[in-house]
Structures are given as structure tokens and as C-alpha cells.
Design goal:
single chain, alpha+beta, Immunoglobulin-like, 4-stranded antiparallel sheet, 6-stranded antiparallel sheet, 3 domains
Length: 255
Amino acid sequence: MRLRRWMRSEQTHDWIRSGGIVVASVWGIYTFLWQSVLVPSWAPAHINLGISLTPGEGHRKTDGSREMTLKLTATNSSSRKIYLLTNAWQLFGVDRRQGLQDAFLEDANGVLIGKALLQSEKYIVGSEFSTLAAGRMFDDDIIHPGETIERSFLVRIPDAYMAAEVSLVVPVLTRPPDRHLLGGKRMMWQLNSNEDLVPILCSTVQGASKTVVESEVQCDDPDVITSIELDRRLRDFDPLMRVFSDTDQINLPAK
């Protein structure tokens, strides 16, 4: 009798140990899938943008202008691949000059209730910005987790400007773009009559094995769309997409 009880007790302990191993294995698999697969797949697209504007090599000055190096970076700080769509940058010259103190109150109130994110200073007046340069940051590309891509441009800024403003706009996806994106059209950017960057859709010529990204672009008669419409149509394709933008005002070195 005692032997049978002892054997049953040993069997019970074996079952408990086996059950514990199974539970631990299942928990380990679940934790791995949760942390390594499910959570990253639910995360929205995310990148960090960087802007710097520094004197060009040798600090060359000619024809009343300064040569500067504009450096733009994009870092994927997430745990998933990020797919860049067509992006753009714009460089403005900022003219700052002495202003009248009496006009500050009216000017400040106008800025506070206005639509644009502007500022008012009591002794300085900022004139309307003038677009000095514009271009594309990066080609359509993939940024892997933890990776940083960068690009540098040489730009000339007239001596009349004491500061500069750089604006970036970078749409990104969490899934590869294909022919279903934007109805098979290619998203690009252009300057409108006010020199504002606006998104446009261009027709593409696709071969049998080409994706939208690889297709030849024809933009003779582009479709101009609003940023809100662009966001909606990109989100229909990829709910985790984001359109990132950044703007920096940078003091220029003394003449």
C-alpha cells in the first residue's frame, strides 16, 4: 500500500514538473511573439528628422552671398522597416530688421490669432520669407531599424539675410508601396504660385514587373491634391503611415 502511494506521489510530481515545463515553454513562445512580432507590427511608422546649416568648406563668399552646407538626416528609431515616399525640402531666407515698439501689440495679437505658426518680437520685424532653394531629400528608400540616412547640399544664401528657415516633409509607410497605392499614381511635390510645397499625383508607365516606385513618371498634367486628402489616401493603403515634417530657423554666421 505504501509503495502504491509512493508511486502515485512520484507520478503526481512528474505531471506537475511536466506541466510546469509546458507552461514555461508556452509563455516563452507567447512572450517572444508578443515582443518581437505582434507589438512591432502594431507600431505606427516613426522617424526622427535632423537639419543643420553650416558654412561650406573654406567659407567661400562670392557675389554678395555665402556658401553653406545643408545637411538633412532621417533616423529610424522604431523596431520595424520604414518605407520612404517622395519627400521634399525648402530653404527660405529670413530678413530681420529694426522694428517700431508701438506696432508690437497689434502685430503680436495678429500672430496669436493667425493660422500660421509665427512669432512677433517687440524690436525686430521679420519680413516675408523668400524661397531660396528647394529639392528632394532622399530617393524612395527603406530605412532599417536603428539606421540613419543623410544627405548634404551646397546652397548659396545672399548676405542680405541674417537667418534661414528650412522645412522638410517626409511621408513614410510601414509596408512596401505597390500598384494599389494612390491608384497606381506616383506622389510628387511642387511649388504653387505662393511658393508653398503642395503634393501632386503623377501618372506612371509600368512594365510587367515594375512597382509604382520603379515605374517611369510622367507629370505633364499632374493632379494637385490637398495634404489632408493625401493623408487620407495614404492611410487607406497603410493605416500605420505617417507624414513627418520639421522646420528649423537657423542664425547665419556674421558677414
